[in-house]
């Protein structure tokens, strides 16, 4: 009898105590009576509620449930990287804990995987009616901007709900970036990919932790982490304005020679304010890139594991295991 394939399901969780048990039950039900073995790995990303205890309780009940406790809140992409780096599956599936990603799509993902696709990703088929207005607006704007500035194309509403073959996972493990953006990286690595549209469900429990400021910071950081084109745009704007300034000199000379030059304080101040603000904006773009280089040069780990019940990790490291 052939051995069943191992599928690792990675779930980043931050303050999701009300969703852990229901997601665990759904995932295990999907894999029941299938030719696969599922290891369900929850990555607790510095939760401040009872999320970790709920995960440990489910781990006691279900032998296939594991947890990775990060030392603090490092962010969703780093939590995903922690789970992907430690997973052992022939395929890895990443899914959110809030039940907005429909678990029943896992069977469809596995079918595509068996058909030879290395990556099966998902994207929202329609507007997320359960999201707030600013979340929908920033999401739509983000994908338009990143598609315009980068060489990859991301579907509007592409999600962190995907299946990745083990050979692709090995490539992802080798990446050592300060700000990793998995939605873009997974598209960037190539391989044979296919997308599945889905309609997001209503969050089962809890509230979304992303505020407008966090979403804005996320968007700016990932756009600049994935593309250098803002630097070229900044250079182009600077050169264009310099050219316009040169064209202004003949007007100044003619005005002086004809004697109708009238000094205007308001126009001078408006010009200074405009170009001064523009220079600060361009310097800010350059500063963000320099800051990223500085943070990357420090060589700090993307995440720190406080504890885990993964046996193969426990036996090969000094990580605290409860």
Summarize the structure in words.
- The protein has 11 helices and 8 strands.
- The chain has 322 residues and is α/β, with parallel strands linked by helices.
- It has 2 domains: 5-227 and 301-314, Spore Coat Polysaccharide Biosynthesis Protein SpsA, Chain A (Alpha-Beta Complex); 229-298.
- The chain has an 8-stranded mixed β-sheet with strand order 7-5-6-4-1-2-3-8, sandwiched between helices.
- The longest helix is centred in the C-terminal third of the chain and has 34 residues, at 265-298.
Summarize the structure.
It contains eleven helices and eight strands. The protein is α/β, with parallel strands linked by helices.
Essential attributes:
322 residues; alpha/beta; Spore Coat Polysaccharide Biosynthesis Protein SpsA, Chain A; eight-stranded mixed β-sheet; 49% helix; elongated; disordered C terminus
Sum up the overall morphology in one term. elongated
N to C succession of SSEs: EHEHEHEHEHEHHEHHHEH
Low-confidence stretches: 314-322
The largest sheet has its strands arranged as 7-5-6-4-1-2-3-8
Arithmetic mean pLDDT? 75
The radius of gyration computed from the alpha-carbon positions, rounded to a whole number of angstroms, is 25 Å
Derived from helix and strand composition plus strand pairing, the structural class reads alpha/beta
CATH class of the largest domain: Alpha Beta
Q: Portion of residues in helices?
A: 40-55%
Biggest beta sheet summary: 8 strands, mixed
